[in-house]
């Protein structure tokens, strides 16, 4: 599958892609490969995108007897691009 062609076709049909992570999952592609394609198209001034940080929560074991502590990651687990 050609990510660039699929991405441009989707933008042409829908007008925008709200979340690059969801887009990557929908076409069964690696999110980093999609982000690389986005950056390439952006540098060629073919598309415009904005980055938004997503907040997520991940568990982190804190040693014996303490169970699990939940940590909210302020920087987010990944950045999603909106095109």
Describe the protein in words.
With 83 residues, the chain is α+β, with helices and mostly antiparallel strands. The chain has a two-stranded antiparallel sheet with strand order 1-4. The chain has a two-stranded antiparallel ribbon with strand order 2-3. The chain has one domain. The relative contact order is 0.22. α2 crosses α3 (31-43). It has three helices and four strands; from the N terminus they run αααββββ. The chain has helices at residues 3-14, 20-26, 31-43, and strands spanning 50-53, 56-61, 68-73, 79-82. The longest helix is centred in the middle third of the chain and has 13 residues, at 31-43.
Blueprint of the fold:
Blueprint: H1 3-14, H2 20-26, H3 31-43, E1 50-53, E2 56-61, E3 68-73, E4 79-82
Antiparallel strand pairs: 1-4, 2-3
Encode the helix/strand succession as letters: HHHEEEE
Provide the β-strand percentage band: 15-25%
| Overall number of domains | 1
Shape: globular
Derived structural class? alpha+beta
Return residue spans where pLDDT drops below 50 for at least 5 consecutive residues.
Answer: 63-76
Rounded to the nearest angstrom, the distance between the terminal CA atoms is: 20 Å
Number of strands: 4
- The average pLDDT score comes to 76
> How would a crystallographer describe the biggest sheet?
2 strands, antiparallel
Gyration radius, rounded? 17 Å
Q: State the share of residues found in helices, binned by percent.
A: 25-40%
Helix count, DSSP H or I runs of 4 or more residues:
3
How are the strands of the largest sheet arranged? Answer: 1-4
